[in-house]
């Protein structure tokens, strides 16, 4: 059967056989295909509605959760998180309503139209059978009466093929028109269902949001543009000159011995340089403070650096750090 239909199709393409044209069916097929395409596009758009609404809520929930992690339990962020959590639950219910009252009805319309599209393909196969049977009958009927062998049988097959085509054709014309009409009837209600569902969702959100003003009013208003009250860089003890100045100022006033004995030793004064006496013992020391070389030949280091001692003599020792050698004050290290 497949070979016979394919052969008939080739004959029609090359013009050997005449193809039955059914303009009404052809136009309905085009209308049906366009309707299916538009329905699927609409279904895709409506399917995005629940996630579109909830994505914003989920982002707000995460932001409030991060705020709660920062401020701790019982903070305002925890209250705000609970509000968005409640909104998210309403968003979930909204999504279920959209699925049941909007998306599923569209899918049923798509399924009905798709069934009709498949039936038009069967109708096309029956047209090929009908045209092939007609060609067979016509080829015998054109012969002389004495050579018309099998004419009656060919006529019977043609009439049977024509009935198979006509009955399905008439059903398809009726049903496609019904499908397209149902789309025009049902889709406005689908649109209304969407708006009703969203209206219910918005009203529920507004009701939940009535809790927000009390949260806002309970928190003192703060100017977020004001400067953060930290010590400016130029006054900070990160600058060694500020440390020396502060120390000199402290020495001019009262110093609590009990307090100073429990704190880290203050930065020592730079010892007087003496002539180093070599020693054969090599060891390492750890810097207690930052030291920046003042003269050539001195070794600079940072607090925590481990220095290899090359020579120990008086208050100034010779050492090596990261491949650089130089002298340094011994009271800066431990």
Automatic annotation (TrEMBL):
One of its GO terms (molecular function) is cytoskeletal protein binding. One of its GO terms (biological process) is actin cortical patch localization. InterPro entries: AH/BAR_dom_sf, BAR_dom, BIN3/RVS161-like, SH3-like_dom_sf, SH3_domain. GO terms for cellular component: actin cytoskeleton; mating projection tip; medial cortex; Rvs161p-Rvs167p complex. Residues 263-277 have a biased composition (Low complexity). Residues 18-45, 144-171 form a coiled coil. Residues 280-334 form the SH3 domain. Residues 256-277 are annotated as: Disordered. Keywords: Coiled coil, SH3 domain. This is BAR/SH3 domain containing protein.
């Amino acid at each position: 059967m497949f070979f016979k239909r394919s052969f008939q199709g080739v004959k029609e393409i090359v013009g050997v056989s005449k193809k039955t044209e059914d303009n009404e069916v052809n136009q309905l097929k085009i209308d049906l295909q366009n309707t299916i395409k538009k329905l699927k596009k609409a279904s895709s758009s409506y399917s995005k509605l629940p996630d579109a609404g909830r994505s914003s809520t989920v982002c707000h929930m995460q932001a409030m959760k991060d705020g709660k992690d920062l401020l701790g339990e019982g903070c305002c962020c925890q209250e705000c998180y609970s509000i968005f959590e409640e909104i998210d639950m309403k968003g979930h219910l909204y999504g279920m309503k959209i699925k049941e009252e909007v998306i599923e009805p569209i899918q049923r319309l798509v399924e009905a139209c798709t069934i009709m599209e498949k039936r038009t393909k069967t109708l096309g196969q029956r047209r090929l059978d009908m045209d092939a049977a007609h060609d067979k009958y016509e080829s015998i009927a054109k012969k002389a009466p004495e050579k018309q062998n099998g004419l009656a049988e060919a006529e019977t097959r043609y009439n049977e093929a024509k009935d198979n085509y006509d009955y399905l054709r008439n059903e398809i014309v009726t049903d496609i028109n019904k499908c397209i009409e149902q789309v025009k009837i049902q889709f406005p209600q689908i649109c209304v269902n969407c708006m009703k569902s969203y209206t219910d969702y918005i009203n529920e959100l507004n009701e939940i949001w009535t809790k927000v003003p009390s949260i806002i009013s309970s928190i003192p208003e703060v100017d977020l543009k004001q400067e953060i009250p930290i010590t400016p860089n130029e006054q900070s003890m990160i600058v060694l000159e500020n440390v020396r100045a502060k120390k000199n100022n402290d020495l001019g006033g009262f110093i609590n011995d009990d307090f100073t004995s429990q704190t880290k030793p203050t930065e020592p004064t730079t010892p007087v340089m003496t002539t180093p006496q070599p020693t054969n013992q090599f060891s390492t020391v750890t810097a207690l403070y930052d030291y920046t070389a003042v003269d050539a030949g001195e070794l600079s280091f940072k607090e925590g650096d481990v220095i290899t001692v090359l020579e120990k003599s008086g208050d100034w020792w010779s050492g090596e750090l990261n491949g650089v050698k130089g002298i340094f004050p011994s009271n800066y290290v431990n």
